[in-house]
Amino acid sequence: MQHSWMEKSQEVGKVVPIPPTSVVRLAAADRSTPRWREYLGRIFRIGYYSRQDGLDCVWLVNDEGKYEQTTDHDYLFKYFDVIHLAKEKSLYGRGKPPFPLIRHADKGRIKRRVSGKKV
User: Fold this and answer.
1) Are 22 and 16 in contact (CB under 8 A)?
2) CA distance 7 to 16
3) 66, 70, 68: which is closest to 18 by C-alpha?
4) pTM of the predicted model as reported, rounded to 2 decimal places
5) Which SS3 state, helix, strand or coil, does residue 114 take?
6) How confident is the model at residue 115 (pLDDT cuts 50, 70, 90)?
7) Helix (H) or strand (E) holding 77
8) In terms of Cα–Cα distance, which of 72, 75, 92, 67 is closest to 5?
9) Taking CA atoms, which of 63, 74, 95, 114 is between 20 and 30 Å from 13?
10) pLDDT digits (tens, 9 = 90+) for 59-83
11) Which one, of 59, 62, 81, lies nearest residue 70 by Cα?
């Protein structure tokens, strides 16, 4: 199901922005992005857009909830896998809370069971 703003963007032939709060993974790097090689597999959330930057300036939000770097939609779809396409309708995030930190699993507290026995 597409959002009405996505349909409208397609009708007028402008960039269809990926919804904020979507989740992407850096999946590729090449000669034009050599510094990205060491970050392959890194996960980002898509931040809210800025009226000043425009809808083709995609902000990548890190685990700490900080707007870390930008890319455009061409690079986003060339180098990133979309893990989760959000249903967020607010492109600019007006009145939305800041992105929270991502809490990583506490590996020391996780108990696995193998054949019914705790490991």
Assistant:
1) no
2) 9
3) 70
4) 0.75
5) strand
6) low
7) helix 73-79
8) 92
9) 95
10) 999 999 999 999 999 899 899 999 9
11) 59
Report the amino acid identity of residue 71: T
Distance CA 94, CA 28 (A): 32
Q: Tell me whether strands 43-46 and 113-114 are parallel, antiparallel or unpaired.
A: unpaired
97, 23 in Cβ contact below 8 A? no
Give yes or no for a contact between 7 and 78, defined as CB atoms under 8 angstroms apart. no
C-alpha 98/C-alpha 33 separation (Å) is: 29
- Return the percent helix, strand and coil in the chain, to nearest 5: 20, 25, 60
pLDDT, tens digit, 9 for 90 and up, residues 21-53: 999 999 999 999 999 999 999 999 999 999 999
Six-digit token pair at 9?
């963007």
Amino acid letter, residue 66:
K
Burial environment of residue 19 by CB neighbours within 10 A (0 to 12, 13 to 18, 19 or more): buried
Q: Are 46 and 86 in contact (CB under 8 A)?
A: yes
